[in-house]
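Following up on my earlier thread - several people asked me to post the actual chain instead of describing it. Fair enough. Here it is, all 199 residues.
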Amino acid sequence: MIQIKNLSKSDPYIIFEKLYKDAVSKDQKHVEAICISSYDEILNIPDSRYVNLKYIIGENWTFFSNYNSPKSTQFDSNDNISAILFWNSINVQIRMKAKIHKSDEDFSDQHFSNRNPRKNALAISSAQSQSIESYEKIIENYEKTIKNKNLISNRPDYWGGYTFKPYYFEFWQGHEHRINKRDIFFKKDNHWKQEILQP
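Reply from S.P.:
Thanks for posting it. Predicted structure:
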């Protein structure tokens, strides 16, 4: 589940909230799974991965990651991202474009302190996306870390939140005859504008 607080009352967020509640009511699995796409300036290629969206507060969307991971390097060099949610239970896709930045440290500390300590142990023990000699070594590192007494209060400085604020939404709603409904919203002069796209 996504923790939603003080959600914006603007049109795209009203639509999002309704669709989210519909998906939850239909028992959508992994409703918080969101695909984040970034750009790798060194390799000159796009890159995508699913993460767990944890919060939407106002218009700010937040997930958590290792700050030394490839995606973090990509965010540092190019803060433009795209994000996609797909909820098959209601046949809806939500596309977003946004700028991304590291979350406030106090916010990351608070989230870390409220997490399951076993999840924190993995965040501490894993050099995310780096090569390692075996899966057994991953387990060994994890088991060593789980004995740490500071799994709640000692958030490592290489782990924390990423927050993005969308400036573009597309709400795609599937139709059995492919007459799909596509509503877009984009920020212009700090106001949301709406258009309808053809299928």
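Residues 3-115+157-197 form a domain with the Pnp Oxidase; Chain A fold (CATH 2.30.110.10). That should answer part of your original question.
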